[in-house]
Design brief:
The structure is a homodimer of 266-residue chains. Chain A is α/β, with parallel strands linked by helices and 266 residues long. Chain A has helices spanning 3-6, 64-71, 86-89, 95-102, 112-121, 190-196, 218-227, 244-248, and strands at 11-16, 46-50, 55-58, 78-80, 106-110, 138-142, 147-149, 152-161, 164-173, 176-182, 201-205, 232-236, 255-257, 263-265. Chain A has a single domain, classed as Ribonuclease Z/Hydroxyacylglutathione hydrolase-like (Metallo-beta-lactamase, Chain A, 4-Layer Sandwich), CATH 3.60.15.10. The first copy, chain A, starts with a helix and ends with a strand.
Chain lengths: 266, 266
Amino acid sequence: MSTTSLSFPVQITVMGSGTSQGVPMIGCDCPVCRSTDPRDHRTRCSLVVATPDTTILIDTPPELRLQALRTGLKHVDAVFLTHAHADHIMGFDDLRRFCDIKKGAMPVYASPVTLASVANVFPYAFDPKNRIPGYVSVDSHPVTDSFTLGGLTITPYTLPHGRFNTYGYLFQRAGEKIFAYMNDCKDIPAPAREAIRDVNVLMIDGLRDEAHPTHLTVGEAMAIGRDVRAKHVYLTHITHQKTHAQRETELPKGVQLAYDGLSFTV
Amino acid sequence: MSTTSLSFPVQITVMGSGTSQGVPMIGCDCPVCRSTDPRDHRTRCSLVVATPDTTILIDTPPELRLQALRTGLKHVDAVFLTHAHADHIMGFDDLRRFCDIKKGAMPVYASPVTLASVANVFPYAFDPKNRIPGYVSVDSHPVTDSFTLGGLTITPYTLPHGRFNTYGYLFQRAGEKIFAYMNDCKDIPAPAREAIRDVNVLMIDGLRDEAHPTHLTVGEAMAIGRDVRAKHVYLTHITHQKTHAQRETELPKGVQLAYDGLSFTV
């Protein structure tokens, strides 16, 4: 790899930043759900990691189609899944458009368990006989260890999330820990913490203030950020407890809330 | 039933009117997909039928949450499903909010085959052990013949849709055929045509002009409307072939295009 390619920019775009029920919540009249601040309109979590020649989509929530329209996402080279909960996979069928556009099957990287769950929900996508235009078709990549894509080294880490586990992903560029995405978890166990130590940007589950059986609180997420010495922390998977503006006033330097449409370069 | 209740109004609201890929389509730059007319922004098909005391939602597409927010839908008494294709069921988990609001399980009416398919995708929703706040829980109503709800008599009809069948639903109020919803089909077979003859409003699959293996064309749908002597016809499940404004100029009196947010009383 040339010196030039070592320094290529990686663009991170938050497609969705909301909790499993989204914000505003259906039928909720709380101040957050009535907020007109677009940052308080949170679709379910997904994210794009784009190098100059490779675009990776993480998770396929129900609103994937509208997220893609809003952010102008027209091409996806590979999909990573964190886990198979409804709020992360029920837009999977909309990958059909990205298959049509790339004229081929979509490489999908996830744990073997997650791939099996998604194949149960969308069996036609995993059936080689369905590789016809207009249908989503998948090249399965069950991963349990580091792999490379678009000049990046990506490592999945298993994170606890109640009865399920999820994957968090660490992205490294020429040995530099540029980004870690750990969006749905109750903790980050020691091996993953060690792996992401000194990461440039950590995007992490920060659901709300009160304890939750399967999610990190804002306080717990910030403590992990300090523990791993993340240079910058973004909280995501946000519920309707506080408006973006309210929460911002409480966060220390180096910690911010993600929001739908947030985009930055690492 | 009193004379007054015989004449109660029934409000129909189109939540989504789009083909399986939605309009605009991801990554499409055609004039329809670039249209700024809100009627050309079509989420996947769903519909609300509301009597003064009962609100019925038909289908749970991926965009259900955003459809509910836009139309102000805050309460659902029962859900009907037409079939289990992705564009009609992948928002099913968002019924959790309506379960929370009604503080109970959601009655879901569909064919036995459709219910089995949905239970495979969302097994937790059909597990009586999961009847806890925050989760969708379902009271299954496999239907194959007429039933009554909210003072209406509803009859499902099996319609051909490629390798699958779908249900179309006829709504009758005190014997008057007020509304038929047949949104995803290649034909309406003779028994269903006879049943819906002289219906006040027929909303029917009218995908596009060219023949399609599993959908009615605009011409075929209009021919069925004439054959059954529907007093008014709305075409739905629309693709990105023509703008709403273009298509309107071609349709005869008594035939219109549905669009997201269309609402009328029968």
